[in-house]
């Protein structure tokens, strides 16, 4: 039996994961900005599930959630940093009051929640931190630049964290799902208010993608959660975990593109050391 702390449990993958964790008998601190949506979960699993209001941008909330896991459920084995949202719009179109709050949640909130949880996690045998990145953390595309930047930062932070924690026996998994049928393209996505005609060839297609694909994504969230559970339970969890055919295709294209640039410019770009010959 593991004890989990999951952020962003009100909907989407966070809610699906919370349901699956509780159903298999694990202990859980389920969190969201409002706990109203979590009441039914607590009622169904009164012995093993606790809920708590947690806004990852609010100082002290994460520490209270960790304290609840330790006092009510005996400790903490798995932290899932799931809370987050996305944005659509060209870089020039975005305004600070649109994109800065996203970084506060997607990156800085994740950092503070992780820092609050680490002392508790380090007390356990084989604990795990799961950071939700999405395919947007693997490769960027026009119209998603700010969202890509926040998730690229999560990837870089998670890789460093994994390196720091490996000697301590703490695992880190970066989950990189493709499109799954959740509310992400609806309530969890904002669109830049300003539209600049110069970007008509690229960004409007992203805005349209949100409108035409919301609720029609091919991915089954239950299957994504099953993969996540299997990874957390594995003796040797992966650091990078793309989930779904779309995420794998994005990763493979990124690797191919990266390799093409490296090979094409290798002879020129490596000839940069001081000449040590007499």
Distance linking N and C termini = 66 Å
Query: Order of strands side by side in the largest beta sheet?
Result: 3-2-1-4-6-7-9
Element-by-element helix/strand order: EHEHEHEEHEHEEHHEH
Low-confidence stretches: none
Q: Biggest β-sheet, characterized? A: 7 strands, parallel
DSSP strand tally: 9
Task: Tell me the helix content.
Answer: 40-55%
Counting structural domains, the number is: 1
Outline type: globular
The number of helices is: 8
**What would you call the structural class?**
alpha/beta
The CATH topology name reads: Rossmann fold
Write down the CATH class.
Alpha Beta
Q: What is the arithmetic mean of pLDDT?
A: 93
Brief rundown of the structure:
The chain is of the alpha/beta class and 278 residues long. 46% of the residues lie in helices and 15% in strands.
Which features would summarize this protein structure in a list?
9 strands; seven-stranded parallel sheet; 46% helix; 278 residues; single chain; Rossmann fold
Structure description:
The chain has 278 residues and is an alpha/beta fold. It has one domain: 3-Layer(aba) Sandwich (Rossmann fold), CATH 3.40.50. The protein has 8 helices and 9 strands. The protein has helices spanning 12-23, 39-44, 61-73, 96-121, 145-165, 203-213, 221-233, 245-269, and strands spanning 3-6, 27-32, 49-53, 78-81, 86-88, 128-132, 171-177, 189-191, 240-243. The strands form 2 sheets. A 7-stranded parallel beta sheet has the order 3-2-1-4-6-7-9, with helices on both faces. The longest helix is centred in the middle third of the chain and has 26 residues, at 96-121. The radius of gyration is 20 Å and the shape is globular. The model has no long low-confidence stretch (mean pLDDT 93).
């Amino acid at each position: 039996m593991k004890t989990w702390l999951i952020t962003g449990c009100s909907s989407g993958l966070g809610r699906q994961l919370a349901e699956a964790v509780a159903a298999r008998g694990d202990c859980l601190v389920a969190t969201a900005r409002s706990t109203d949506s979590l009441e039914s979960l607590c009622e169904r699993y009164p012995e093993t599930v606790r809920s708590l209001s947690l806004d990852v941008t609010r100082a002290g909330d994460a520490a209270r959630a960790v304290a609840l896991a330790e006092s009510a459920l005996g400790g903490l084995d798995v932290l899932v940093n799931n809370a987050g949202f996305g944005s659509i719009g060209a870089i020039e179109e975005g305004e600070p009051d649109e994109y800065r709050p996203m970084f506060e949640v997607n990156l800085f909130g994740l950092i503070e929640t992780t820092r609050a949880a680490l002392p508790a996690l380090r007390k356990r045998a084989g604990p795990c931190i799961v950071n939700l990145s999405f395919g947007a953390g693997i490769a960027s595309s026009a119209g998603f630049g700010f969202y890509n930047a926040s998730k690229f930062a999560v990837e870089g932070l998670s890789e460093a964290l994994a390196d720091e924690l490996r000697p301590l026996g703490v695992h880190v998994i970066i989950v990189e799902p493709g499109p799954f049928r959740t509310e992400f393209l609806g309530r969890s996505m904002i669109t830049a208010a300003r539209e600049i005609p110069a970007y008509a060839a690229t960004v409007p297609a992203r805005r349209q993608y949100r409108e035409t694909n919301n609720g029609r994504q091919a991915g089954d969230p239950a299957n994504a959660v099953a993969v996540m559970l299997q990874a957390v339970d594995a003796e040797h969890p992966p650091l990078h975990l793309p989930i779904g055919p779309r995420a794998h295709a994005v990763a493979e294209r990124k690797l191919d593109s990266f390799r093409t640039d490296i090979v094409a410019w290798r002879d020129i770009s490596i000839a940069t050391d001081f000449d040590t010959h007499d």
